[in-house]
Specification:
disordered C terminus, alpha+beta, disordered N terminus, 4 helices, 6-stranded antiparallel β-sheet, TATA-Binding Protein
């Protein structure tokens, strides 16, 4: 009588702990040409790569540049939002600029969005002797926990970034570095007078 009961309990525990088979999203990865993660810009890398950094900084990204060759910098840009009191969102944009030839550069970009939510976390303390163990709650606090993390796939998002890089690069080629926002606003204010 006891053996069948233990067998049933073991099967139930195995079913609960297994959690089913994991989702294998890599099987749907297509590796197709023309994905939104890169764009070739018909300008030299000496101009384009510099303006990748300018584009990120002009939009409020905090950037880190990892060691790389002068012609192929790797930039990691981060921007933060707090859409609700207990929610925070961080966008990480990693960009590499590659020299193709004298009049062509490729920009590769990948963005990952992370959402955090303020959640209550409780800790516990366990104490016991031999077979008797007692677990008691010890403390609780609130901390930001990741609730979502996803690579952005939207071609329009990347298109807007590439367009800004190209706009800045063309402006620099034609007449030197583009003006900063404060220079543009002061120029507009003098025109109005």
């Amino acid at each position: 009588m006891r053996a069948p009961f233990l067998a049933v309990v073991a099967l139930l525990l195995a079913g609960c702990g297994g959690g089913g088979s994991p989702v294998k999203l890599y099987k749907s990865e297509n590796f197709q040409a023309g994905a939104a993660f890169s764009k070739t810009i018909p300008l030299p890398s000496s101009i384009v790569c510099r303006n990748v950094k300018r584009a990120l900084l002009s939009q409020g990204y905090v950037i880190e540049q990892t060691p790389a060759t002068k012609d192929s910098p790797f930039l990691d840009g981060t921007k933060n939002w707090q859409p609700e009191e207990d929610v925070a969102v961080t966008l990480h944009l990693q960009v590499t600029c590659v020299h193709e030839d004298e009049n062509s550069s490729s920009v590769f970009a990948t963005a990952v969005e992370e959402a955090y939510k303020l959640q209550t976390i409780t800790g516990s303390v366990s104490a016991g002797v031999s077979i008797a163990t007692v677990t008691l709650p010890s403390s609780s606090g609130r901390a930001l926990m990741v609730v979502r993390r996803e690579t952005i796939q939207d071609p329009q998002f990347y298109g807007r970034f590439y367009d800004l890089v190209q706009k800045f690069a063309e402006a620099e080629r034609n007449s030197g570095p583009p003006p900063l926002a404060e220079e543009q606003s002061s120029g507009q204010s003098t025109t109005k007078r």
